[in-house]
Each structure stands twice: as C-alpha cells, then as structure tokens.
Fold these 2 entries.
Entry 1:
Amino acid sequence: MPKVLPEYKELVKSKIIEAALKVFSLKGFYATRMLDIAKKIGMSKATLYFYFKSKEDLLRMISITINQKLGEIFRMSFEWNNFAAAAEIIYDRIADEVILQLPIGLEILSLASRDETIGKIARDDREQGLAAIQSSLQHQMDNGRITNAMDAHILAQLVLGLCWDIMLQQLIGSDQSLARENWINLLTVILEPQ
C-alpha cells in the first residue's frame, strides 16, 4: 500500500472540514450523515472515517479550525501600527470569514444544553476562542500596542463578546456600516493605549 504524505493528509482533512461545515450548515448537525459529507467531496464513507472517527470528532475539528482562524485574524490585524486600521481589518475579516460558520455555531449552542458531548464541544470551543484572542492581546500588550490597564483574559472576554455581536448584527440584518463603525469605536475605547 502506498504511503500517504502528511501534506496530502492535511489537505484532505481541510477539504473534509470545509465540506462538513457546508453540509452541517444546510442540513443541521443531527440530520447530516457522514455519508452526506463524503458525497459532498466525492469520497467513500470509509475514507471519511479514516480521517474522522465520528461526526462529533469532525465537529470538534471544525471548532478548532474556526478558533485558529479567529486567532490568526487578531494576530495579523494587530501587526498594523494604525489601531483604527487594525480594528477595521478585524471587523471585515470576521464579517467575511467567521460569519460563514454562524449557522453551525448557533446550532451547537442550541444543542449544548441537551447533549453533553455537544455541550463539551461548545465549552471547549469558547475556551479555545478566548485563548486565541487572549494570546494575541497579551502579545500586543507586551509590545505596548494596546492598553495593559486590564488583564488580557478580561479583555479577551470583552472582545469575544463583541465578535459575537458582529455575527448577531449580520444575522438579524442590522445596518452593517453602523455596526462596523460601532465595532471600531468600541474596540478603540477598550484596547487603545491612552
């Protein structure tokens, strides 16, 4: 049997995660079968199970991927010296990239109170997202780019709440230019050094 290169495995996993996210968002977590995901990307169910043991395992990896993206958004955006520009970039990237995961995120929250496995995934998801933001904020605090008047963990909780507000405002159809302006103003008040 030929050896599968690690790079190829990672590429396949990423394609599976992307497909699962789309199928979960369309059909819902419980209504989606592993076969639905396999068909979406043209692979056998057996191959899918080679990469992920279960739907819950796949959901957990989607959560990890989303939080990695969130951390990356914060790390990359704060590399700008202009704070307002960084806040704009963060808003735009969350609105463009993270919003795509909102349907499955909301379903996870809904299911979390009735399904202990999903509840654990939701709690882990929140902690991972919080840690990603906190790490980025702490790095920026250490470099003097943002305020160090508050603990990085508390700041991360405030910012994570604002991130959820961005997604909520998009979901309910709020005026996006006003939402964007409010985000920039709030983030500036909370984080910019005085």
Entry 2:
Amino acid sequence: MNAALLNDLRRALKTHRYERTDNGVLLPAAQMLIGGVFSARIDGGPLIAGHNAVANEFVDLLLNVVLGNQSAPSAWYIAPFTSSTAPTTALKASTFTSTQTEYTAYSEATRQQWTKDALSTAQSMTNSVAPAVFTIGTGGATITGAGLLSASAKSATSGTLAAAGLFDAANTLGAGSKLTVEYGLNGTAT
C-alpha cells in the first residue's frame, strides 16, 4: 500500500469517516471498500462461496493496531458453523460459538489456521494456496458457514472475530469427508 493511501486510510479511521455496508467497511474519502468472501468445497468439489459480515470488534482492532499501540494477533483461525442465522457486524468472538453453533466434531484438534498467501500487492489476501481443511467426524454434518477468529481452541470465546459469513448453499458432509475453507479479504477501490 503506498504511503498516501495508508495516510488516507489512517485519517478516515481516526475521524470515524467510514460506513458499514453489507459487503464490508466503506471508507468514502479513501475510496476503499474492505470486505471478504468465505469459500468452501467438499472432497475437492466445486467452490461454494458466500460474502461475510466484517465484525465491529475487527474494525476496533484495526483502529487500535493501525492508529494505536495495540499489537496485532499473531495468527487467525477458521471455524465452521451449522446455524443458518446470518452473521451480523455485532457478532463477537465471545458470542460466535453460541450464536452460530460452531461445529467442533471434526478430527483436527483445533480450529484450522488461516495461512495467508504471499503479502498483498493487489489489495487482497487469501489462503487459497493452503486452505483450512476439516475432516468431518462420526455422524456427518451440515456446515452452513465459517468465521475467522484470533483464538485457536474449538469453541473459544476469547480473542477477536474478524468476519463470519454464510455460504451460498449449505454443505452436507458424511463422516470422513473433507471440508476445505478459504477466506479472501479485499480492499477494493470504489
């Protein structure tokens, strides 16, 4: 990100000149929209995408890291859920598990780390090279969406929720199926 754009971004955040939209956070003065998309596939099948709600607590974190002295979380984790309730910007890490009905019966010991691809040079970050993979446990599951959180433990209520979203279609998986989840965050010029 060039210095002028970074200064515009800092100024817009500092003066609270941003708007919440269904697709993310709009910074009119910087002419930028920050938002993302969760995508999933079952056993290597086609991608099923879905836009997300960027959480208010992530905007607070962004303000505190960019403009304040707060340290950024060292890692981010993907957590699948089974609720058909559309996540809102008011959703928090502390309420994610109960509100979205976090699915935890997968074989892996923790939420799967969001391992981002190379640093952004095109106003976009994703984990498409190393997506999160969940091995579905006994009894199967219907996964409706996912969240991006800063705590790794299954059902953790600590940390920060960055975003959560429903997939465009529910993913019904049998025991042993692999659910692959990607998350891409974009900063788009408006």
